[in-house]
Amino acid sequence: MAQEVLFRVERAFAVFFRRSKNGETPGYPRFKGRGRYKSITFTQFGEGKGASFQDGNLKLSRIGLVKIKLHREIPSTIKTVTVRRDAAGNR
């Protein structure tokens, strides 16, 4: 979970320094609050890592068990999991 946040911060500073180097108006990266993002990415999947399956639910570190509807089998190995916050009526 913290890895993805660091990737976002690194990307923001890379763009800032690239723009300042090219003479453009850079815009320093601002602090992004807790509710700013609509998704969170777990870059590791499996037992003892950021996300895993447990009793038909998805277990996310620091969040807990999340109910899921697994419509079909997953054909290969899961590497990352992205969980998106969305209102149920906005589809």
Label this structure with key terms:
22% helix, 1 helix, two-stranded antiparallel sheet, alpha+beta, 91 residues, 3-stranded antiparallel beta sheet
Figure out the total of helices.
1
Kindly report the spatial arrangement of strands forming the biggest sheet. Answer: 2-3-4
**What is the helix content?**
10-25%
Major sheet, described briefly?
Answer: 3 strands, antiparallel
| Rg value | 17 Å
Spans with pLDDT under 50 lasting ≥5 residues? none
Q: Would you tell me the structural class of the helices and strands?
A: alpha+beta
Order of helices and strands: HEEEEE
Q: In what range is the share of β-strand residues?
A: 15-25%
Q: Average pLDDT, to the nearest integer?
A: 81
The gross shape turns out to be: elongated
Describe the protein's architecture and organization.
The protein is an alpha+beta fold. The chain has two domains: 36 residues, no CATH class; 54 residues, no CATH class. It contains one helix and five strands; from the N terminus they run αβββββ. The strands form two sheets. A three-stranded antiparallel beta sheet has the order 2-3-4, with no helix packed on it. A two-stranded antiparallel sheet has the order 1-5. A hairpin with a 2-residue loop joins strand 2 and strand 3. The longest helix has 20 residues. The two termini are 26 Å apart. The mean pLDDT is 81.
